[in-house]
Amino acid sequence: MNKRTKEAVSRIQPARGEGLSKDLILLILDIQGIEDRLRDFERKYRLRSSEFYRLIKEGRIEQRLDLLEWLGLYEVLQIRETEYRKLLDRQVEPVLTALNTLLVPA
Question: What pTM was estimated for this model as a whole?
């Protein structure tokens, strides 16, 4: 293993050794819980959440209490997924940097 490869591997190992952060794990569990509740609505109304969201935003579906819960869950899911991507990117960045170092010709 050459010096450049050893340096890249040493940068990967700490990131890999830490595993997923507690925040990321909790966020994943939260997302999974929201997705489970959204699936309940999708089964009940036989409509995908993304289609429901579009239709309710267009005013084509009446806003009832249970549908407002569905709407809120879908919007919270969008926020949580954005948070997930940002947090994951921060944790994966050291690994990507190290891998890119390995892939660049010397």
Answer: 0.70
